[in-house]
Structure formats: structure tokens, C-alpha cells
């Protein structure tokens, strides 16, 4: 099924109107706001584009950035986006999502410092000045998606059936599987603080305490059925993030900023129906196992608690937010609307523009409920291809977002801002086309390192070659 058939902006506008989304997805062709700087406390961000945290799955087995990591970050640096939100980096060995995920520790510190330096050098080589370039890093624990074994906050009767303790045997989590203890979580708080200090030493200007995509900290937010200090009511479910922020502030002060990428709508798992189209799994009502959902209809968002969360974080001094939703493991169309699903995925159950509108609408609601000096970065733009800048401009002008975040687009087209600055438009032949081959590479584990690196297959010959090698080794040609 093909969704994106838009040669001209008017074609896209027509479809948006046809889908009755024109009150949410708007376009402004006269570009100005996207080029404007933005104040971030005492710092200056030189334009309104951010590179989202995009994992390359290309670190060394002990978690250092490797050759392809440096290449990717340097391309981001040279590209001209003035905020680079560094990728998911584990704070503990057992919390890594794959054997090549980055891992920040004392032994690896100098390599992360070199990564920051080379990214800045690449930026200065093209743009001359890096004083308005902001670079951060996303700190994470992968929770139930950790590759060595799952760490679950609570038993989810729906998601446990999709979480493997032995992938080869297709064995899922049994009812007697242990949940993470309060003691483990308390020690993990200190590990996040320790890594924030290391990030500061490496030269990062902010750390993201990751609370999205159903990893551990996101699952803590949903832990209504968990007992103990970290579960049950909202205060307990936000205890971990409160403690981490307060400890970082206490031990480092304002020398490093604190940010958070947050799921505001987890939604439900989806599976293929008989035609390959996604459908929600069967679920109990009330559905008390997700964050930001209507418990009586978890296919609908309820922003009551996400708004409480961002207001709480703002009161603790957090002023940089990156808004996301869904899980890449069981409802990828919610987080990243696509044209073609990954091999282990399903055909979109809705027009991808509906997903784009959902991102725009929920992000605007979050921004509306924060103070003016809070920076809110939006998601969901890549599906719009070369027209994304016009949607971004409209959202900026209407105050619905502070910055435009690009993830898949940045992998495909890291120098997009160079072309935009020079030509006033993006090149249609260089943009992301959302066919999910980057995800297919991420899902491929059958090499000597246990993980293929990922990047843009259609737009980057380096990854086209890796993709071919991966397919040959699986006899998929």
C-alpha cells in the first residue's frame, strides 16, 4: 500500500484536508522562524532544528563509540542543526538494548570526549562558529528490552506476551518472572547521577534522562500496579525521575542542563491481522498498564498525567523537553509514521498523516501547559519528506513547538540545513522516504558482533553495502 503520492505541496494539503486534519497540520511556505536562534537559559541555540537521538548500533562491544559512530556524529555536526541530542547511552552494562549500544563509564570517558570534540570540529569547519551549537546525550536503561535479560517494572498481561526471555526458543515472560526491586532502582538512580557527571566531564552540555519508548523509566511512569516506593500513585511513579534530577542538581549544580525525552502516550501493542494490517491486541478494561492513555479506551491519549509530569520537572529546573510516544517494539506507527513497515512489522492501520497530526496535537498541548522559557521539541516530521520544513514553520509561528526534531530525516539527510539555507528548500531526492530499512538493520543480529550497524540504506552507500551484506548472510536476496 502506498500512502505518499505527493509531488507538490498542494497535493499534500489536499490530502490533509481530505482527512480532516487541516486544523492540526498546517504549512507556511515563507520561512523565517526555522532560522531564528533560541535562548536556553544562558545558552543560545542557533536555529530551530534538533537532531533526535538516533542510535547507530555501531559501538564497540564494551560500549565505546566506534568508526561509524564518529562518522554519523560528525555528519550531524557539519550539517548545521544547532541542537544535537545524542543517542541512547546505557548507564549500566545490563541495561544495554543491544551488544553495540553505547555505554558511558570511566573507561570509555575519553572516547566520548573525543566524540564531542570531533562533532564540534566538524561543525566549525563548515559554519565557523560553534558557540550556538548545543550537544547533549541521552542516558538510559533499556528495561524489559535489555538484550541480556528483561528488567520489568511490573507484570503487563499484554506486553509480557511480547517480551522474550529466550528469543531463539520464543519463550516469553512467565507470571513468576521477578520484577526489579526497589533497592535496584535506588542504586540505579545513583548510576544515572554518576553518568551525568561523566557526561559533563566529556563536554556534553545537557543530559537527557530518557523516559520514552517503553524502556525502564517510561515503564516506571506506567507502574500503577507496582507495589513499594516506586509504584502505585503518581508521586511514587515519578519518584525515580524526581530523585535523579534533584541529585544531579545537588552534585553538579547548573554546570550541566537536564532534559528529558518523554512518552506522552504509550498506546497499546499492535499485531498483524490476516491481511498484514496492524490491529490492537486484546486488552483488559480498565487498561492500567500504560502511561498517558485513557484507561477505558487505551487507543486514546489522556494527557492529564503527562502534563503533571512536565510541570513537575519544570518546577525542578528541567526546561528542555523532547516529546514522543509509542513503542518501537509493538506499535511503531504511533512513534514514527511510515510508508513501509519493517520486516517484523505491520502495514499502517491508519494513514500516516493521522500519526503526524497526533504528534503535532499532543506536543502543542504539552507546550501550552509549560512556561514560555521551556523548550519543547516536536517529533513526527520525517514522514512529510521535503515538505516538513513548511509544517515546522507553521507550528513554530503558531507557538505549538519550540524546535523541529528530525530523527530518520537526519540519518538520511544530515546536511539538510545546508541545502535549506542555500536554496530555501530541501532536496526531494535526499530526504527520508520512511521505508524502515534502518529498522530492519537494527533488528538484524546475525553477525559476529551480535548486531548490524544501522543507517539510511536508500541515501547512504555505506549502509546500502551493509544492508546487502546482511541480506546475503540471511539469504534474502
UniProtKB/TrEMBL annotation:
Keywords: Flavoprotein, Oxidoreductase
One GO MF term attached to the UniProt entry: oxidoreductase activity
Domain NADH:flavin oxidoreductase/NADH oxidase N-terminal, residue spans: 33-267
SUPFAM superfamilies linked: FMN-linked oxidoreductases (SSF51395)
Superkingdom of origin organism: Bacteria
Family annotation (PANTHER family): BINDING OXIDOREDUCTASE, PUTATIVE (AFU_ORTHOLOGUE AFUA_2G08260)-RELATED
Protein name: 2,4-dienoyl-CoA reductase
Organism: Kryptobacter tengchongensis
